[in-house]
Please model this.
Amino acid sequence: MRIAVEHRSVYRFTQPQARIVQMLRLTPCDTQHQTVVSWMVGVDCDARLRDATDGYGNAVTMLYAEGPIEAIEVVVTGEVLTTDNAGVLRGTPEPLPPALFLRSTPRTAPSAALAAFAADVSAGTTDPIERLHRLNQALHARFRCVPDVPDNGLTAAQAFAGKAEASRDVAQMFVSAARTLEAPARYVSGYHLDGTQQCAPHAWCEAWIDGLGWVAFDPVTGLSPADGYVRVAVGLDSEGAAAVAGHRIGHGEEQLAVDLHVDRLGNEE
Amino acid sequence: MGSRGAFDEIWGHGGPDAPRAEFSTLSQWIADTPADELQRRQQSAEAAFRQLGITFAVYGDSDAAERIIPFDIVPRIFLQREWQKLSEGLVQRVEAINAFLEDIYGARRILDEGIIPPELILRNEQFRPEVAGIRPPHGVWAHICGIDLVRTGPDEFYVLEDNARTPSGVSYMLENREAMIRLCPELFRDFRVAPVDSYPDMLLETMRSVAPSGRARPVCVVLTPGHFNSAYYEHSFLADSMGVELVEAADLVVDDDIVYMETIAGRVRVDVIYRRIDDDFLDPLVFKPDSLLGVPGLIAAYRAGNVALLNAPGNGIADDKAIYSYMPEIVRFYSGGEARLPNVETWRCREPQALKYVLDHLPELVVKLVDGSGGYGMLVGPTASSEQIETFRAALIAEPHRYIAQPTLALSTVPTLTEKGLAPRHVDFRPFVLTGSDKVRVVPGGLTRVALREGSLVVNSSQGGGTKDSFVLLGDAA
Model:
């Protein structure tokens, strides 16, 4: 499948900013099931952009801009060719061993309720794939997914107490729950072709299964991602894989408007 | 265990009347100088420290901010041959620490070879995936190490703790020496004491040696969290004596992956940063996002190889207490030989057999939290009440992985001025080891901490500890 992404983020400030430094995780990398045909990260003001790779193997772009800045627009455009791999990943950059992803973070520390839920849905089978699929389906069944909004800092434990959650929250719950089952799991940020209007990147997860490798799960659909996904960044939690980590020097408030289009190009089946 | 049977570094096992042969002159000085004269000099030194504002904590004692740490006028002395042997052990240890860090953030050979259980590293918060894959300029990670040692006999030293993050206390070493030269000049006539006042020059040399390649006249700075930090005196003292700028995060900016310092004359490129800020607060884009102390973009500049950070971020994995017990294996793995400086025997309570032993021998052991510091969260079995022991027993059973246990060692003593005259008091020692791109240097001196309470083994300043000057002799008698 050929997927086109156009992702515009406009930051407006109530007062001009003296400096902005952002770390952008907005660039996908090639894997066996994903070929980046073209990709561009641009900015609408005088800024320096520097590319690097972070400790998790994610492509990052550092953005440095000097003020006064009243607004800044970051535009990501690109095309990616994807193939369906039934969720099993091959050819991803893996600088860290899977066991690292058993580590808990403040956002993924499980509550007793979430751990009990994970134990409950996985009871009766010792097959790791089956356990994780059940977890994925159970989260899908339990939560009504709402459109993604900019990061509100919700933890997996807090989100689990709610009813309707964004993809970021269910993904984080999956990661937290899978780790309680001793499965290394990580948070994935990227783009999903789902035909809806979006205002934040989509989130899903990957879990490590011995003998099989990293396998992707999307608790929003209850399925493993097929070829409608563009995988961008991974991390221990939503903060670690966040599309943007930013810092600004200046007073006033910040407003973020996101315009995100994920479209299928061509109509070949 | 108290001081009974402990080795006194001056008096040996024989007491004041039969000092160790090499220390007869010093012993005589102690005997000849009236106690009230020693008292007067000691008070004069402490008054000077108070005036200087050296009121900082040595080992993370957060409540020490407004106190000075008591100073003891009787120096601790190392003979040249003792020091030589000790230095060799320190160099080997610090080289192993650097090799370990290079490996653990790179190829992780030591995990592949099964020397350390991988989960102990990978699930340890001190292992920082954020800096994985970065190779610091010139491959140096632990530029400034403070290795905490205890001694139990003339040639018996044990490493208690490796400090490979931001070890403090070096300003005590320097200020204590200055006070001793002023107050006891006769000692420096009688003995050839190796000078320590070249430390700032050595540190600056170390900093310059690890500057990113191609920077002809590297700009070095000291980065402090600010004046409210308990070690601020040391930060400003070191910057001052090296003749470099003392900066706070707000003075630094990163642009295009290069670090600059804002000055009245404009931006100046910075090549080497001796940072006295914890990893968590270095760069809000990579570590704690709500940190106001950090420099946004600093890690990007570091990853790009445009700045050296002393010590390297992520070093905490090398001095973690859970890793400590593997140090003999780590030294063997990287140096190919046995550790010249042994560890204190350590039971890892996460291992069921070790836990059983510890629970059976609590009254004899020291039990420590894996992630504790400053002498808190610690049980000293021989001096603990049965109530304290039972509290620890319950804690150990509940969370065994959080604890290690060690035997109570008969720590060496050094004669110390007390209200009742001179008496042996237990000491430990923190020498400072500098690693540059060219070589490893052991500063001939260090920080001696002394437990001022009779029989106490706890030298932390928050628990009634003081400091002494530490002489390294250039000749072989004192």
